Amino acid sequence: MPPDSDAASAWAASGAVLLSGRPDGPPLLPPGRAAAMARDLAERFAGSTGAPRLDGARLLSERAAFTGHRQRGRVSPGGACRLLPTADGWAAVSCARPDDPALLGALACADVGGDPWPAVASWLRGHTGAELAERAALLGVAAAPVRVPADGSRVPVPASPRPVKGALVVDFSALWAGPLCAHLLGLAGARVVKVETPARPDGARRGDPGFYRLLHAGHRSVVLDPAVPAGRRAMAALVEAADIVIEASRPRALARFGLDAGAAVAAGTTWVSITADGRASDRVGFGDDVAAGAGLVCRDADLSPLFCGDAIADPLTGLTAAVLAATAPPGRGVLWEVPMSGVVAATLDTGPPSPSLPAIPRGDGWAVDTGSCVVPVAVPRRREPDGDAPAMGADTEDVLRELGIPLP
To answer: Which long-range contacts (CB under 8 A, 24 or more apart) does 6-10 make?
Structure first.
């Protein structure tokens, strides 16, 4: 069956095709409508907020434009996630954080040293995807079985547009999805304050510096220590002052900081909660393993999975979260629950998988035959950062003083 022409054209224009498939083979066309949905979300956000119009499909490959990553088959373009066979299928397992090798060793019940992959691969071959999911949630490992796409979308429907220009956004999130949401709100004129703790700075600070600057230029950086009462009080006061709160933590983690989403919403705040699989789930997930777990994978001729794109669940969720954050019921607060797995699932057709359509050579590059036309495959393209990102904690005193919050 030929691909949907609009979906295929959006994928070709996104830059993500060059991040999909085997390193020694042609790029592959990803399944579903994620690129077309990203394009439409960006248009909707710009139309409702007056923000500059961005090419939403291009945002899916933007990080790779900074890092230079390309397709690597069953290793994600960034190298932190792998597709491995289980006793009953395949799984996506991430090793992205400094403590992940030890956690993966606990998963595999083995002493892994600095390389957990041989032990993890051996353990997975003797266990099912369901067993992996249960054990990964218990240990806080970012891993999931690769499932056939099902009708499991749980993405909220936006409400009425709300004013964004001048709104105070307090961003507790990290990495890509939440910061992209904050970045887009900042482009629409919101005042963005990024909050980190001394013990857990944003892991993206260890990534590409240009990409980090792109997402955080023009924001202000606050560091507060929730381990001390004064730090918790300052955090609570920031939330009380915020028009929009963005976070990407499991609810119990925020509860330890003394932050209550329900109370904030009751007071009129728009609260954006980004999770791997919903606020009721203990699952931990990053963009690559969440996307693959939801079924967003390319397929070899034998239907075995290959990575498509670079952590696509992250930018797709960031766009979705920004659209939701720019809306609210009139005169009320709202909790927008944005599960990354549900966002991805909403882009995929149900039913059995089929082999992915390979790109065809065209001049010095590649093209996709959509059935109605041949569309050139774009390379990932970067936007230049508009200024620098603040040093960690550089604005703590100024922000708290301006908002009348006692310094901890």
So the answer is: 6/36, 7/32, 7/33, 7/35, 7/36, 8/357, 8/368, 8/370, 8/371, 8/375, 9/368, 9/370, 9/373, 9/375, 10/35, 10/36, 10/38, 10/39, 10/57
28 contacts 355 by C-beta, under 8 angstroms: no
One-character DSSP codes across 109-164: TS--TT--HHHHHHHHHTS-HHHHHHHHHHHT-BEEE-----S---PPPP-SB---
SS3 of residue 92 by DSSP:
strand
Give the torsion sign (CA, 388, 394, 398, 399).
positive
In whole angstroms, what is the distance from residue 9 CA to residue 375 CA? Answer: 6
Under 8 Å CB-to-CB from 277, ≥6 apart: which residues?
A: 283, 285, 290, 339, 340, 341, 342
Residue 91's alpha-carbon distances to 15, 54, 281, 294, 400, in angstroms, are 25, 34, 19, 11, 45
The tokens of 149 are what? 């796409």
d(CA 387, CA 297): 36
* Residue count (the chain): 408
Q: Check residue 183 and report its DSSP letter.
A: H
- If residue 212 lies in a helix (H) or strand (E), which one and from where to where? helix 209-216
User: pLDDT truncated to tens, each residue of the chain (408 aa)?
Assistant: 557 889 999 999 999 999 999 999 999 999 999 999 999 999 999 999 999 999 999 999 999 999 999 999 999 999 999 999 999 999 999 999 999 999 999 999 999 988 999 999 999 999 999 999 999 999 999 999 999 877 656 788 999 999 999 999 999 999 999 999 999 999 999 999 999 999 999 999 999 999 999 999 999 999 999 999 999 999 999 999 999 999 998 888 888 888 999 999 999 999 999 999 999 998 999 999 999 999 999 999 999 999 999 999 999 999 999 999 999 999 899 999 999 999 999 999 888 899 999 999 999 999 999 878 899 999 999 999 999 999 999 999 999 999 999 998
Q: H or E stretch including 20?
A: none
